[in-house]
Amino acid sequence: MLKKYLSNEKGFTMIEMMVVLIIIAVLIGGGIKFYKGYIENSQITKAKAQINVMQAALDAYYADNGRYPEYTNELLDAGIAHDDKTATTEIELEARDPWGQNYKYAVNNNVSGDKSCVVYTGYNNIQGQSGRIVAAESKNGKLLKDGARLTNDYQPDGVAN
């Protein structure tokens, strides 16, 4: 009687359980991939917004002074540069991008009258490739390029990698 009772018992076989677990694992794996992409896109959006704010402040400085700030002490007075930096065409800012690297600011106040500046991120591994996000560039106080792009070979005027 016990044998008849056990043979009629209904339930899932081991193979059915394994199939269900494999399906669940595939769904979770796909979800994690999309979630990581969502997080990375939000970091890029945040970097674009931060760079655009910094670029607007630099353009306002240009409107007041007729040139972009190019010396570290000018940026220190504004509270945005590290105090251990020396005067250079490429200045590392105190603000950090969403990947934890310092933003960089490059200026070219050349004698010919053309003055340009750009704020960009350091090199990062963004969406599987290494590069910088350059969100805005200004020339003579006017915004030239708006909207971030990922570039691997961007070099501001007069700045070597």
From TrEMBL:
<protein>
    <recommendedName>
        <fullName>Type II secretion system protein GspG C-terminal domain-containing protein</fullName>
    </recommendedName>
</protein>
<dbReference type="InterPro" id="IPR013545">
    <property type="entry name" value="T2SS_protein-GspG_C"/>
</dbReference>
<dbReference type="GO" id="GO:0016020">
    <property type="term" value="C:membrane"/>
</dbReference>
<keyword id="KW-0812">Transmembrane</keyword>
<feature type="domain" description="Type II secretion system protein GspG C-terminal">
    <location>
        <begin position="38"/>
        <end position="131"/>
    </location>
</feature>
<feature type="transmembrane region" description="Helical">
    <location>
        <begin position="12"/>
        <end position="35"/>
    </location>
</feature>
<keyword id="KW-1133">Transmembrane helix</keyword>
<dbReference type="Pfam" id="PF08334">
    <property type="entry name" value="T2SSG"/>
</dbReference>
<keyword id="KW-0472">Membrane</keyword>
<dbReference type="InterPro" id="IPR045584">
    <property type="entry name" value="Pilin-like"/>
</dbReference>
<dbReference type="GO" id="GO:0015627">
    <property type="term" value="C:type II protein secretion system complex"/>
</dbReference>
<dbReference type="InterPro" id="IPR012902">
    <property type="entry name" value="N_methyl_site"/>
</dbReference>
<keyword id="KW-0488">Methylation</keyword>
<dbReference type="Pfam" id="PF07963">
    <property type="entry name" value="N_methyl"/>
</dbReference>
<dbReference type="GO" id="GO:0015628">
    <property type="term" value="P:protein secretion by the type II secretion system"/>
</dbReference>
<dbReference type="InterPro" id="IPR000983">
    <property type="entry name" value="Bac_GSPG_pilin"/>
</dbReference>
